Amino acid sequence: MWPFSKKGPSGFSSSSTAEQVTQGIDGTGLTAVVTGASSGIGTETTRVLAKRGVHVIMGVRNTAAGKDVKETILKENPSAKVDAMELDLSSMESVKKFASEYKSSGLPLNILINNAGIMACPFMLSKDNHELQFATNHLGHFLLTNLLLDTMKKTSRESKKEGRIVIVSSEAHRFAYSEGIRFDKINDQSSYNNWRAYGQSKLANILHANELTKHLKEDGVDITANSLHPGTITTNLFRYNSAVNGFCLNNAGIINVVGRMVMKNVQQGAATTCYVALHPEVKGVSGKYFSDSNVSKTTPHGTDADLAKKLWDFSMNLIK
């Protein structure tokens, strides 16, 4: 019996797998981009979406690893439609190149899954001189979404199908800096805390989905944007820190929230992403935060409309 596996209103729980939450759903004719698809929950998300008939384009930093994932999926499912394109979310140049090549391909885009991420790494700057976690987890995805939005709008309009933008956040948003987003100290090495910086980037993911929802509604387009906590999964995210029996301690001594942070396997970890991306129950739902394939609650920062607007303007300025 999986602990804390009580089913929510959706009928699913923390123990539900990606295959279970998409059982019986036909994704034929849909096209999705999944970032960070060469390992962990990104790979499982790709595999399950492809199993449901979705054409998946994997955005991967390591194209050789992406090729291996594609071959593995095709062995299990020879009719799967899976492709890989190079994408480094920490580099704006790479994001722009990916978006340009995607648009040039003429492919439609129904679902964008912003999944790639790094966790609690030592202080480093991206190629564009932004703190690496903020750059990779938020800013790269903010730019990617911005560049692919017209393609999504066109697809939604022509296909008469709802587009979905799915942003993978984390319960770690609860451990962000006390002010939420440190706009004036993003690159301040002297006050940098690896876990709080991770929490800040994950809070940014939630705020991005919330503010994006407002813009999509103002534009009158049939596209939703939601964020989610996948659960704590033993993946490559842990390469920058030590995990003791599945519970991470940051250097401020914060213990992960019991229950929310119980370790999941990859099949369970990809469930909420696949649920939000494909399930008919989520149709028309936007600006929400999901956990264990159910709508969940964030911190007060996570629903702060002024903070979301400020982050949007701040991010827009950085990607110019």
Overview of this protein structure:
The structure is a single chain. The protein has 320 residues and is α/β, with parallel strands linked by helices. The protein has helices at residues 18-21, 40-51, 63-76, 92-105, 132-159, 194-219, 266-269, 271-278, 305-319; strands at residues 31-35, 55-60, 82-86, 111-114, 163-168, 223-229, 232-233, 263-264, 289-291, 294-296. An eight-stranded mixed β-sheet has the order 3-2-1-4-5-6-9-10, with helices on both faces. Helix 4 packs parallel to helix 5 (132-159) and helix 6 crosses helix 9 (305-319). The N and C termini lie far apart (50 Å). Residues 238-261 have low confidence and may be disordered.
